[in-house]
Amino acid sequence: YGKNTIKFLRLHKEGKKHFVKEVEVCAHLRLTSPQEYLEGNNSLVIPTDTIKNIVLVLAKKNGISSLEQFAIDICNHFMTTFCQVAYVKTYVQEVPWQRLCENGVPHIHSFICVPDGIRFCEAEQCRNGPLVVFAGIKDLKLMKTTQSGFEGFYKNEHTTLPERHDRILCGELFCKWSYGECKDFDFDCIWKKIRECILEAFSGPPDCGEYSPSYQKTVNGIQMLVLSRVSQVQVIEVVLNNTFYNVVDMKNLGLTNDKEVLVPVEAPYGSCACTLGRKKFFEA
């Protein structure tokens, strides 16, 4: 049980310069006894309102140096403060505020919300067990208008999809990864590096791009690049929900439409997912 959608803004000031972190937190506990379920005995139950207040107090006292560290702080607090807590899991996601720039000069106290992917993390721990930390990005919308196709797929009497060697590749990406032994990582730096890998693997070189024969191959390319460049990542999951665009037939309007006007197909949509990890992690 626990408290969901604990939303707050943490404002930090350094002189005239302001820093913001707006987050949403979900904190769940499992107690050492199920007596509140079986017997209606609430003597061990930490009220969910108390859970909410603890999260807010930790934000006030500790600040939010990174999402991952804040999730770790929450787990540590419940494990060290309450002997009746057997397991704690914390989820934190961030509102994507970015500092405004005016003529290239960063503003000291103004921000803009940029929907270029939502950062999130999870931390969980069992009593006498290891602390496990996950991080990720979701709702990241990506598109490239060429260098993508889909050919040579299996066909039968139900197949109506034509083969395409030049199409728009567009999708909404969810990516989640796990760390190995949680050491003193620079979580902000790692997250930014992984996001750069995602964008690079999806798009290819800026002057020519890179051909994608399928959404599946693009997903695998993202995972392989992350694992090759970020040693702290042990397992990475990627889900890519596809958005298709159909070319509008304008013959009746007396026009030739050479893939210049297209309409998105909202539903149904395809989706592909893959989880990839280092061999040593799975052997362990």
TrEMBL record:
**Where do the annotations place 5-hydroxyisourate binding?**
T48, D49, F150, R167, Q216, N242
Q: Where in this chain does the entry annotate a coiled-coil region?
A: none
Q: In which pathway does it act?
A: Purine metabolism; urate degradation; (S)-allantoin from urate: step 1/3
Annotated binding of urate, by residue: T48, D49, F150, R167, Q216, N242
Q: Which InterPro entries match?
A: Uricase
Which residues of the sequence carry a binding annotation for O2? T48, N242
Per the UniProt entry, the Enzyme Commission number(s) are 1.7.3.3
Please give the catalytic activity noted in the UniProt record. Answer: urate + O2 + H2O = 5-hydroxyisourate + H2O2
Gene Ontology cellular component terms for the protein in this record: peroxisome
Where does it live in the cell?
Answer: Peroxisome
Q: Which UniProt keywords apply?
A: Oxidoreductase, Peroxisome, Purine metabolism
A GO molecular function held by the record? urate oxidase activity
* Function text: Catalyzes the oxidation of uric acid to 5-hydroxyisourate, which is further processed to form (S)-allantoin.
Q: Which family does it belong to?
A: Belongs to the uricase family.
- Its protein name is Uricase
Instruction: Provide the species name.
Output: Climacteris rufus
Q: Which gene encodes it?
A: Uox
